[in-house]
Design brief:
With 76 residues, the protein is an alpha+beta fold. It has helices spanning 15-19, 66-73; strands spanning 2-4, 25-27, 32-34, 54-56. The chain has a single domain, classed as 2-Layer Sandwich (Alpha-Beta Plaits). The structure holds iron/sulfur cluster. Residues 2, 19-20, 22, 24, 34, 39-45 line the site of iron/sulfur cluster.
């Protein structure tokens, strides 16, 4: 899965949401998140993010964000 990390905070762009083929972005409290079970790992969103906040969870530091993304995807 891909995850959204803290660079997203206060970012007003939604380019990632527009390109996601499965609509798995959700609004968290002050940033967007990706539902880890819905993400199909296509990678299309990563280069679209102007804040450089989206990473695959296999990258160092990104794995810790999976549960955060899950929590705020399922809160609403
Ligand atoms: Fe959506 Fe693909 Fe990004 Fe996953 S990697 S959030 S499926 S655009």
């Amino acid at each position: 899965t891909y995850v959204v990390m803290d660079n997203c905070i206060a970012c007003k762009y939604t380019d990632c949401v527009e390109v996601c083929p499965v609509d798995c972005f959700y609004e968290g409290e002050n940033m967007l998140v990706i539902h880890p079970d819905e993400c199909i790992d296509c990678g299309v969103c990563e280069p679209e993010c102007p804040a450089d906040a989206i990473r695959p969870d296999t990258e160092p530091g990104a794995e810790a964000w999976v549960e955060f993304n899950r929590k705020f995807s399922e809160i609403w």
